[in-house]
Amino acid sequence: AQSVTQLGSHVSVSEGALVLLRCNYSSSVPPYLFWYVQYPNQGLQLLLKYTSAATLVKGINGFEAEFKKSETSFHLTKPSAHMSDAAEYFCAVSHQGAQKLVFGQGTRLTINP
Amino acid sequence: ETGVTQTPRHLVMGMTNKKSLKCEQHLGHNAMYWYKQSAKKPLELMFVYSLEERVENNSVPSRFSPECPNSSHLFLHLHTLQPEDSALYLCASSQETADSGNTIYFGEGSWLTVV
Q1: B101/A94 CB distance under 8 A
Q2: Cis check: omega of the bond before A113, within 30 degrees of 0
Q3: H/E element, A93
Q4: Which of A4, A13, B19, B83 has the fewest Cβ atoms nearer than 10 Å?
């Protein structure tokens, strides 16, 4: 069975600082990995995804993530945080033949002025 | 606008009521999903439909009854719910199921409060 662990349910950074949201996965087969963002009172929106092409994936709003098989990680980063980045972020995993996407518990990102 | 529209956005219902949540996708997708999002819990997949056939039912209580009349519409019929069923219910769709890394597109959700 696949699973995702997001380290830290709440992360707080200053505006302009580096954003790092951690995600580790467990999968017995090559995974597909996703990061979604949820702004208040909205549904989830795809930030980026890894599907076995380049290991460094660039997404929307300046975010990127790197797939590291040896570390079973897919951490999300952004060099400089903006106030508008405040939201909840979800890491998710699936694989070829999967019927569903398995989500982590989410990380709430707060940006301090 | 994600192409997945949910109505109503907010619903308050008594435990003896019967109500329905509606979802419509305008993306030409073949798979549709219902997720439940509660405070302090991960997103829970409830149902998956592929080409109008239910392919997954994640041990959801029978007081939740899905219906997929065609590939563009998905309903969640609700009856005799409990207060702990209060949550955000998210509808989503994708080209196929999660196979091959298809992106899942979410609606904005329906906030359900059971009183």
Answers
A1: yes
A2: no
A3: strand A87-95
A4: B83
Using one digit for the tens of pLDDT, what is the confidence trace for A34-78? 999 999 888 999 999 998 778 999 999 999 999 999 999 999 999
Quote the minimal CA–CA distance from A35 to chain B in Å: 11
- B79–chain A nearest CA distance, Å: 24
| Region of poorest pLDDT, from A12-16, A34-38, B57-61 | B57-61
CB contact under 8 A, A106 and B109: no
What average pLDDT score do residues B83-107 get?
A: 87
* CB-based contacts of B93, cutoff 8 Å, min separation 6: B3, B4, B25, B27, B29, B31, B32, B33, B104, B105
pLDDT exceeds 90 at position B101: no
Distance, in Å, from the CA atom of B13 to the CA atom of A34, rounded to the nearest integer, reads 34
Instruction: Using the predicted structure, report yes or no on whether residue B4 has a pLDDT greater than 80.
Output: yes
Taking an 8 Å cut-off on Cβ atoms, the answer to whether A103 and B43 are in contact is yes
User: To the nearest whole angstrom, how far is the Cα of B91 from the nearest Cα of chain A?
Assistant: 9
d(CA B56, CA A90): 22
Tokens of B41: 């819990």
Chain A's closest residue to B111, CA to CA, is A41
Over range A79-89, report the average pLDDT: 97
CB contact under 8 A, A103 and B105: no
Say yes or no: A40 contacts chain B, CB-CB below 8 A. Answer: no
